[in-house]
């Protein structure tokens, strides 16, 4: 009996990977083996960076809060310590947004915790 291969599924898998590689440069977009490696690596990066994005944003928020607090003579750690001590339940994302876009509201928070 001749060997049976599922060419339909094989072609579908390859088409799926080549579709994901659309927009890549050179042979990465149209040669199966190169495209497969490129897509695998891209998926690893996207998985890793979905987690790194959270760290990056937290660091950005901390930087913005620190800059806002220093304009009123406090460091970031002093400010956040006093915010927690006064039971102000605003997270870093909201505080950073206030420091950037609404300085008078941020100043009111600083005056309240001083």
From TrEMBL:
Q: Which domain of life is it from?
A: Bacteria
One GO biological process from the UniProt record?
translation
> Which molecular function term from Gene Ontology is one that the record holds?
rRNA binding
Q: Which GO terms describe its cellular component?
A: ribonucleoprotein complex; ribosome
Keywords in alphabetical order, please.
Ribonucleoprotein, Ribosomal protein, RNA-binding, rRNA-binding
Family the entry assigns = Belongs to the bacterial ribosomal protein bL20 family.
What the protein does comes down to: Binds directly to 23S ribosomal RNA and is necessary for the in vitro assembly process of the 50S ribosomal subunit. It is not involved in the protein synthesizing functions of that subunit.
HAMAP family, per the entry: Ribosomal_bL20 (MF_00382)
PANTHER family, per the entry: 39S RIBOSOMAL PROTEIN L20
Record protein name field: Large ribosomal subunit protein bL20
Organism source for this protein?
Aquimarina aggregata
């Amino acid at each position: 009996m001749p060997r049976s291969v599922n060419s339909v599924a094989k072609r579908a898998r390859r088409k799926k990977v080549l579709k994901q590689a659309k927009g890549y440069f050179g042979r990465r977009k149209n040669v199966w083996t190169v495209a497969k490696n490129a897509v695998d690596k891209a998926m690893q990066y996207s998985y890793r960076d979905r987690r790194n994005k959270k760290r990056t944003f937290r660091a950005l928020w901390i930087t913005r809060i620190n800059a806002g607090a220093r304009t009123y003579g406090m460091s970031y750690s002093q400010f956040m310590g006093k915010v927690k001590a006064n039971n102000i339940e605003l997270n870093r994302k909201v505080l950073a947004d206030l420091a950037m876009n609404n300085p008078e509201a941020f100043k009111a928070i600083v005056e309240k915790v001083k």
